[in-house]
Amino acid sequence: MNARLPLRAETAISLASPLEVMARLRDHFVEHGTVSGTDERWTVAFDIGEAEALACDGHVRFRVAAADPTSLAYLQWGVAEHVCEFAPAEAPEIVWKGGVIPGAPLPYFREMRVLRARQITPRMRRLTLAGRDLDRFSHGGMHVRLLLSPETDVKPVWPVMGKDGRQAWPEGPRPIHRVYTIRRIDIAAGEIDVDFVLHEGNETPGANFAREARPGDVVGMTGPGGGGLREADWYLLAGDETALPAIGRMLEEMPAGKKVVALVEIADHAERQELQTKAELDLRWLSREGRPAGTTKLLADAIRALDFAADASVFVWAGCEHAAAREIRAHLHMERGLPRRNSLIAAYWRHGMAGEVENSD
């Protein structure tokens, strides 16, 4: 394995069909990294490290290597999660040698405290959170999971490392978790900004936390994660208000010389924000004018109306409601013929449903 990746962990997992599980794992990992080797022994190189699989008599030996504890823990988690997914009837026993000690705090977890809050627009509120050792949250993705108390004045338990490499939970009240974007990070000050859309309704724990947050309030955080932009000459960034924090951060980090079209669906004119960038930006606000979120085709129709080349010079990023994401994905790949590697289309939420949506491309 790569000598520049000093942190290592390994495990041997007994399986009834080692080669079958290895083949399914390889087919999955090829979408996220570079795979090399044979059916009996292969290695996959990810942005965060490497994983190696070797078929032995009745088991598969896995070795993972990374440059930092968070990346190593992610690799352990990924191997364990997908082995259990691809061999569900066996409930394989997984015990790692090396890596984080079982029961220890997760290297990708931080306990954060609210420093301050301010209103960005009538429906968007920004919380500044403080925590220690935030350097790893400055790269490898801009999304985090915030772990929120399930009830007022109840301190939840925080996840720890399980012996199989996945998260384990001590006894006690578990937090509610929601995915958000780090809008700004200041490593030296130990601060991040997170913007919250103030959704209405009872099933809105994130919005409720943002409305009521006071300095000193505690929230858990795991991460970072999520896909970003690939190198291109021309970018299309599209999303509704839930994706506006990500679009704002990507624009701020965009270098000079790039061309960007940003399509942002919002409730009304009052939700417009000042967005900064060094790139050549064509920013278009798409207002629903009173129509409920998730009930229009503003984003999909605006993308259809654009004239752009479907080639390697283009990258499209979109974050929006589930049905809109499906329509946008189908239009880009099936109608325009844009290669899948030239886009990242994420379903941030689903109309009529609370919680996260596991759907991106």
TrEMBL record:
Belongs to the SIP oxidoreductase family. Residues 107-231 form the FAD-binding FR-type domain. CDD domains: siderophore_interacting (cd06193). Gene3D superfamilies: Alpha-D-phosphohexomutase, C-terminal domain, Nucleotide-binding domain of ferredoxin-NADP reductase (FNR) module, Translation factors. Coiled coil: none annotated. It comes from Chelativorans sp. (strain BNC1). It comes from the Bacteria. This is Siderophore-interacting protein. Pfam families: DUF2218 (PF09981), FAD_binding_9 (PF08021), SIP (PF04954). One of its GO terms (molecular function) is oxidoreductase activity. InterPro entries: FAD-bd_FR_type, FNR_nucleotide-bd, Riboflavin_synthase-like_b-brl, SIP_FAD-bd, SIP_fam, SIP_rossman_dom, UCP028291. The lineage of its organism: Bacteria, Pseudomonadati, Pseudomonadota, Alphaproteobacteria, Hyphomicrobiales.
